[in-house]
């Protein structure tokens, strides 16, 4: 390759599903164990770009836009179990042949746990788990996440979309969702930021802490977050 040749892009964007019920996702890497990165309500797949770029030479990374976010259209059913089933179908369609590490940030911790309860999973990571039903409005939700306190260099990846209708739709989807039962022995890492009380009752879970005021650990310190995920890529 000469100096005038452009390097191939590390990230590619794809569409999966049917025309009326499709997902948009980013893909990095060509081999190794897959890592599925799920963003929180009111954000989009961009929150994972710095971590995914770090991981790309070690594994295959998939970061979808959840329905109603980014470039993925919304749909009527937004329950965690239904979204987990669709994500499992997406992963299966890629024929990666290895159980993924599934990472859920914020409200997507519920989707990641629903995935791990029903589909082959190498490890589960839930980061700053949030329940959209515990607050009333999108503005209150964002006040808890505090994206404005992400380091300035990463703040463009954490631009929220405070749509009241979308927030209410996800609240309705989560309202009656039962807590999933995780398989015995599944490695589970519970990530918390210093602004969050340590989560209790997660049997067998490790609890790495990120010293930050924003509940976006993947942008507060993406290098450390990626290193922690690389450690999970190893066989148990």
The CATH homologous superfamily is termed Alpha/Beta hydrolase fold, catalytic domain
Order of helices and strands: EEEHEHEHEHHEEEHH
Oligomer: single chain
Beta-strand fraction estimate: 15-25%
What does this structure look like?
The protein is α/β, with parallel strands linked by helices and 236 residues long. The chain has a single domain, classed as Rossmann fold. The chain has seven helices and nine strands; from the N terminus they run E-E-E-H-E-H-E-H-E-H-H-E-E-E-H-H. Strands 1, 2, 3, 4, 5, 6, 7, 8 and 9 form a nine-stranded mixed beta sheet that branches.
Pick out its properties.
single chain; about 240 residues; alpha/beta; Rossmann fold; nine-stranded mixed β-sheet; 7 helices; 9 strands; about 30% helix; about 20% strand; disordered N terminus
Note the topology:
Layout: E1 11-18, E2 21-28, E3 34-38, H1 49-55, E4 60-64, H2 80-93, E5 101-105, H3 108-118, E6 123-127, H4 138-145, H5 164-175, E7 188-193, E8 205-206, E9 209-210, H6 217-220, H7 222-232
Helix pairs in contact: 1-7, 2-3
């Amino acid at each position: 390759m000469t100096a005038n040749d452009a390097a191939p892009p590390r990230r590619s964007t794809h569409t999966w599903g049917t025309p009326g019920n499709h997902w948009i996702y980013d893909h990095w890497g060509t081999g190794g164990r897959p890592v599925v990165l799920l963003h929180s309500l009111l954000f989009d797949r961009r929150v994972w770009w710095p971590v995914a770029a770090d991981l790309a030479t070690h594994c295959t990374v998939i970061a979808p836009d959840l329905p109603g976010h980014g470039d993925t259209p919304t749909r009527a059913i937004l329950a965690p179990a239904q979204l987990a089933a669709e994500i499992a179908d997406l992963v299966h369609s890629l024929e990666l042949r290895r159980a993924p590490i599934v990472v859920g940030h914020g409200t997507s911790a519920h989707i990641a746990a629903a995935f791990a309860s029903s589909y082959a999973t190498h490890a589960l990571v839930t980061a700053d788990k949030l329940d959209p039903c515990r607050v009333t409005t999108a503005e209150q939700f964002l006040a808890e996440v505090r994206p404005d306190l992400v380091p300035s260099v990463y703040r463009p990846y954490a631009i929220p979309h405070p749509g009241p209708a979308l927030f209410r739709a996800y609240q309705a989807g989560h309202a009656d969702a039962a807590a999933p039962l995780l398989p015995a022995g599944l490695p589970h890492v519970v990530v918390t930021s210093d602004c969050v009380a340590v989560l209790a009752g997660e049997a067998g879970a490790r609890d790495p802490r990120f010293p930050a005021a924003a509940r976006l650990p993947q942008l507060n310190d993406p290098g450390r977050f990626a290193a922690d995920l690389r450690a999970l890529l190893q066989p148990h």
